[in-house]
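_Per-residue structure_
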Amino acid sequence: MKEFKYPKPLAPGATIGIIAPSSAAKRKQTKLGIEYLKKKGYKIVTSTYLTKGKFYIAGNDEIR
């Protein structure tokens, strides 16, 4: 059996990108998560349609 190798942890100051590839993220939970990551020292980049959705999907067909 192969030994699983874990990647190195992200260093403070690293950039984390947050996307919603399917349904839009819930605003309150997303905001809390982003605040937590920023307090840990990470830079956060979010997609334009992270919390914007129509019905249960994030963005329209062309964007997804």
Remarks:
- Residues 10 and 56 are 32 Å apart (CA to CA).
